[in-house]
Amino acid sequence: MIGIMTLTFILILGILLFSLTKRKSHIIPGQFKRRTHLTISAVFISFLFITAAIAELMEPFRATEMDLVKVPASLEQERIDLEMNMMNGTNVDSTLILETRTHPVGDTLTIHRNHGEYEGPIVYVERKKSNDATVEEIIYKPFLMVSDYDFSDALTVAMPVWTDDSVTFQQNSLMEVTKVSYYDAPFLTRWTQHPVQGDDGYSSVSRSPVVQLIVPEHVEIITPSGDEDVFFIDELNG
Amino acid sequence: MYLTEPKLFDIVKKQFRFKMNAHAAAFTMLVFLQGVSFALELSNNNAFNHFHEMMPSITWISFSSGQFLGLTLVWAFVLGVLITNTARKNESFSFVTTRLSHHLANFLFMVFASVIGGITVVLCGSMLKLFTFFRYGEVAVQTPGLIAAPGDFFIRLVTAIALVSLLFFIGYTISSLFQFSRILIVLLFLGWMTPFLQRFAENGIGFLFNEPSFMLFVVKIVMTLFILFGISVASTNRLEVGQ
Amino acid sequence: MTVIHFKDVTKSYRKHNVLKSMNFTIERNVITGVIGRNGVGKTTLMKIIAGFMEEMSGTVEVFSEKPFNNLRVSANSIFIDDAMAFPQAMTLQDILKECSRFYANWDGELANRLVDYFDFHRNARHQFLSKGKKSTFNAIIGISARCPLTLFDEPTTGMDAAVRKDFYRALLKDYLAHPRTILLSSHHVEEIEDLLEDVLLVQNGAIRFHGAITELQEMFIVLTGKHEKLSRHTVGKEVVLRDTSGPFPNWTVANSFTEAEKDQMVADGIIISPVSANNAYIALTNGPKGGIDDVFDRTETV
Which chain C residues touch B4 with a CB distance below 8 Å? Predict the structure, then answer.
């Protein structure tokens, strides 16, 4: 802040010295006459009024205002804490859950991965004592936040496909999303109902969908593609 | 030949009209700068790309009217410095004036130019918005416009005018002090390096801009303008013309 | 009625005293020539009257008020010099229009006629005019403004002889039709002597002479005759100029002769003639140093 101000000060000094040494310092390349200046200004301002009027009238039809919502800090924290809460067995906010399903299961459960490395959901397996021959599946919403703005709604989840005693996880949909946004100079919005911060660099936080499988204790889990991308909560908790 | 009995207000009015003509170039400069801002904003690579192997890719293109505000503030500051320099002052004294009426006319001119500057900043924002509507169809407007939030629109307008006028008067005051004494400005500059003045400046900025109430913010700005103007008048009221 | 009154006025820049104790009074509707050598403070004097500069001590009154920072003085006076500044975006037409707003007695008709007469292009811009044209245009403003107090500081700088003559003629005509107080500074005394009523002769930051131009002339006489006769008759008199360029020496002498002395000189073959205003001015301002000839005479005698 102070550095910028010092720079500004030097700039000021420069201008002052310049205007002093050049007694007839001109504000602008002075080729125009008064009338020309006035005409240019009048035309510009009229043009601005017209375009601004059109813009303001169009806005209700073109603006997708609700699309960009700031994520409350509490929600952001909860999203980030999801995995930890899951492991600790703490209750997870139900709004983070996309779907809960139950599937019948025999003695084995084969987990297939129909996608490249790290391109599918994150899978956690939790063991349960009761042997009811069902697997509970909880699918948590993925999220993506860019500079605190929520782009999660743009994400679609490819649901795991269940067949007898096996589940196949699908590749995350890799669609492309383009968002266009407009905001007024942040300083001007300081006292309005909708202040914006401006972009002092973007940061993003994101996570793929998380699938939690609650599997009866005796069911053997087979992972043909290796163990690495399936987390066993009991093991993690040591 | 009878003597005219001039009224200060009358002469200020005439001087103001004169200044409007004399500084007509200033508005062309504003038009030019805002055209440049527009070009910069369009050519600016203000797109954010989020690529993540596990995630959909997000391209976020954002447009802002910040550029217009920035350059308009620079314009106001430079103009504030230039309209009080010696050459400009001598021009006023080619006609009927005193130092006070010269300053008052400049005051009116700066207020007028600030209003024009502030309005064009906000309108240029709308113009940019219109451009994005045509170019991209649907646009997320993060700062609702005139119809969605008329109050916000009005506040932005007033804030823009307040900021532009503040920069005008800062430039004007610095230039006036410079005419009063060049040594003073050098001292101020050296003083700037000391923590005391830096803290003073920070406090001043905080005092104005960290004000939560909009009404109080406007009141503080108006007060600041009058103080700055008072300093300008007091520091140059005995300066001689045409040396 | 008194328009300008100076009492013990001083003014200095840094350590250089420009005006040292100025005392004079100028009455209403008189054309006064402010004459003096370069750098004696004519411009400073006029700028103080116009309110552009402030006196350091003493009293200055213009229309019975202190002129510095005085709106009434500013509205009733105009100061014309070749450094008058106008905004560069303004055309001559624009400037004339501004004048008509500011000056209550402005005669737009006259200004237009003068602008046409001196072949100005109305859409031209002041700063692109030549030096002489600039001076002419400024002078037009000075005449047309018809300010009760009009100050011309070297108004003819850069003008050619014809334009100069026209300007003085225009000024005189307009003055006769609309009398006002005019101060005109110049070092071309011979050009303005027909125009002036009074002269204010500034020398060494003080007023050397203030009065009618004829009075100035009466202070000296010119004697033409043989050298030894001139020497004999001017014993004890102040000889201010010795001009030896003609067939007979031509001496300008302070006029302290009695009628009897004059008769004697005429009888002795000396021709007595009045001095021109210009020579009187030179005689008065040369002072004890003598003329430029004396510089050379002295070196020769050493």
Answer: 72, 75-76, 104-105, 148
Half-sphere exposure of B27 (CA within 13 A, CB side): 30
**Which residues make Cβ contacts (< 8 Å) with residue B19, sequence separation at least 6?**
B83, B92, B105, B106, B108, B109
Residue B59 lies in a domain: yes
Write down the pTM of the prediction: 0.83
Residue B67 resides in a domain:
yes
Q: Which residues of chain A make contact with C125, given a CB cutoff of 8 A?
A: 33
Closest CA to B73 of A3, A194, A20, A11: A11
Domain of B152?
8-180+211-236
Rounded to whole angstroms, the Cα distance separating B58 from A143 reads: 12
Torsion angles phi and psi, residue A144, rounded to 5: -150, 120
Subunits that touch chain C (at least 3 Cβ pairs < 8 angstroms)? A, B
User: One-letter amino acid identity for A50?
Assistant: I
Q: Which of B48, B57, B84, B129 to mutate to test the interface with A (most CBs of A within 10 A)?
A: B129
A66 by DSSP, 3-state: which?
Answer: helix
Per-residue pLDDT of chain C (302 residues; tens, 9 = 90+): 889 999 999 998 877 888 888 899 999 999 999 988 888 888 899 999 999 999 999 999 999 999 998 999 999 999 999 888 888 888 999 999 999 999 999 999 999 999 999 999 998 888 888 999 999 999 999 999 999 999 999 999 889 989 999 999 999 999 999 999 999 998 778 888 888 889 999 888 888 889 998 888 888 888 888 888 888 888 878 888 777 777 888 888 888 888 888 888 888 888 888 888 888 888 887 755 556 666 776 555 44
Q: Is residue B206 in a domain? A: no
Nearest to A199 by CA among B37, B39, B142: B142
Residue B203 forms part of a structural domain: no
- Whether the CB of A18 is below 8 Å from some CB of chain C: the reply is no
Count of the separate structural domains present in chain B: 1
Please answer whether residues C60 and C66 qualify as being in contact, where contact means their C-beta atoms are separated by less than 8 angstroms. Answer: yes
Whether A32 has its CB under 8 Å from any CB of chain C: the answer is: yes
ipTM score assigned to the predicted complex: 0.86
